[in-house]
Design goal:
single chain; about 525 residues; alpha+beta; Protein Yojf, Chain: A; seven-stranded mixed sheet
Length: about 525
């Protein structure tokens, strides 16, 4: 440091914590970047902020790594949270950025990769289909028709016959690959309408990177193959080779179900932690304790929530002073995590009071805890009485939330799993915000539930004890605020297999005050072939 220049002051830990809360409240998929590379994905990582000896310390950790940085300054700019940090023993400061996953690459890098992929896919189409004419591919955004610049799209023509084509390059994240079928169906539907008088668009050719087709294949298997010809290919960009993928096999789903948790036994095991959290809530205000939900997650972990927002977990962890396991409580909203002990208990009580005050229907709509995880808030209301969504569901029937169902490399969480009054399984997918992937995400969960149901695994794994389950396929219900159901939902549902009983329920926009359905419609008939 130059002589006479004062040392930079450390940032106040409370200021940094507030900046993190506000930024992460509006971000579902934030990432931590250092020197241009992804250091942490905050969907699988945690953080804590502390002040020690006049320094503001940021601690980030995940299953792969653990880092600590001293934070000197913080600013929010261009949709990113930028931190000036100093490593221990480092003379000059460096920077860390907290960005949304879609912004992890620079716009120029993304545009270059997509332009290069357009040229590659164009040459592949001309080589693989020499008797067809390939229109020039394009990947420009079209917000009116919900076309994303992530995907290259075009047409293959032969006289009055044509195929819609869509591809995604290997530089895009896996989520973009998994979501490619949604945009491909929208492109197919647009081509059919736009070319109705000039050509017959027979079907769709979808290209995904090599080794990334599992989720797309499973979803494509449950489309209406009488409505269009659906073809899936894996493209190796390095070798420029194409491999067709069979998307007609509905039984080859690599998925597994987890055992249902014995909730009563877990509550008894964590009775001391439950009492400690409830006592802290009761001391803050007599009205706080009834707002807290206790949700067992596994035999060794339990969650504490306010309107679906998790603020603490009790778990069995290794005692550093012995070889035995001990009960501990970790608290924090979102990716934040702090160990509850005598020193951190005042912070825990302060946070709990804030959450219970802000996360109320009449709370400040701009407050971080009000904005966090709206879908979990909606889910918590539906769990209290699932019959408000559809009269086919029983108010007193068994209901399970966030049921883990693993498939390929994807760890899915089914929002709500319940039964109709006739004992038929029902999959409920909830969205609090506009999401054009809602139909295919619901289809994805429906397929997994159907696969396990056909093998009788739900009751063998402890779900729906003592209930005679109907052998019929599950019903699928998609629900969200009426004004936030994406306009493309109907178009996508037309291409889903007619064997799937699917209903869309639009909710009153004031659902936080009480869930009320304002429209309900069954899926229309399959798209014309």
């Amino acid at each position: 440091m130059p002589p006479g220049k004062p040392a930079p002051k450390a940032l106040d830990p409370q200021v940094l914590a507030c900046e993190f809360e506000h930024f992460l409240a509006g971000s579902r998929d934030a990432q931590v970047l250092e020197d241009g590379r992804v250091l942490f994905d905050l969907r699988q990582a945690s953080y804590s902020i502390a002040g020690e000896h006049g320094k503001c310390l940021l601690h980030l950790w995940s299953a792969e790594r653990n880092v600590v940085r001293r934070v000197l300054d913080c600013s929010s700019r261009n949709g990113a949270l930028k931190l000036t940090v100093r490593l221990f023993g480092q003379a000059s400061p460096s920077s860390i950025e907290i960005v949304r996953a879609k912004d992890a690459q620079s716009p120029g890098t993304r545009r270059a990769a997509r332009a290069q992929y357009e040229q590659l896919l164009q040459r592949v189409l001309e080589r693989e289909f020499p008797r067809l004419t390939a229109d020039p591919l394009r990947s420009t955004a079209d917000l009116e028709r919900s076309f994303s610049p992530v995907y290259a799209r075009g047409l293959l023509r032969a006289g009055r016959s044509a195929f819609a084509v869509l591809g995604v390059n290997a530089n895009e994240p896996q989520a973009a690959v998994d979501g490619s079928l949604t945009f491909a169906l929208l492109w197919l539907d647009h081509c059919r309408q736009h070319l109705a008088e000039k050509a017959h668009v027979e079907g769709l050719k979808l290209y995904v990177p090599r080794g990334c087709s599992d989720i797309v294949r499973e979803r494509m298997a449950h489309l209406n193959h009488a409505a269009a010809r659906f073809e899936l290919y894996e493209l190796d960009e390095r070798e420029r080779s194409v491999t067709p993928v069979d998307c007609h096999d509905r039984g080859n789903i690599s998925t597994r179900l987890v055992h249902c948790v014995n909730q009563q036994a877990v509550r008894e095991r964590f009775a001391a932690s439950i009492a400690r959290v409830m006592d802290a809530a009761a001391e803050g205000a007599a009205t706080l304790a009834p707002s807290i939900d206790v949700a067992p997650l596994s035999a060794a972990e339990i969650s504490f929530r306010v309107h679906g927002l998790e603020f603490a977990r009790a778990r069995w962890g290794a005692d550093p002073r012995s070889f035995t396991a001990s009960e501990e409580i970790v608290f924090g909203a979102g990716a934040a995590a702090h160990l509850l002990d005598a020193g951190s208990e005042p912070l825990f009580r302060q946070m709990l009071q804030r959450i219970c005050a802000e996360r109320q229907p009449e709370g400040d709509h701009c407050a971080p805890f009000y904005r966090m995880h709206p879908e979990r808030w909606l889910e918590s209301l539906v769990l209290r009485d699932v019959s408000v969504l559809d009269s086919r569901f029983s108010e007193a029937g068994p209901v399970y939330s966030q049921v883990p169902a693993f498939s390929a490399s994807d760890r899915a969480m089914i929002d709500v799993l319940t039964l109709t009054r006739e004992g038929r399984l029902a999959v409920i997918e909830l969205k609090a915000d506009e999401d054009l992937h809602l139909p295919l995400q619901g289809l994805d969960y429906w397929a997994r539930v159907q696969w396990h149901h056909q093998r009788g695994e739900f009751q063998r794994f402890g779900y729906f004890p003592g209930v005679a389950l109907s052998p019929d396929p599950p019903v699928l219900l998609l629900a969200g605020p009426a004004l936030r159901v994406h306009p493309s939902t109907d178009a996508i549902l037309r291409y889903i297999s007619p064997d799937i009983d699917c209903t869309v329920a639009g909710l009153d926009e004031r659902w936080r005050e009480g869930v009320r359905v304002v429209f309900r419609k069954r899926r229309a008939g399959a798209a014309a072939a």
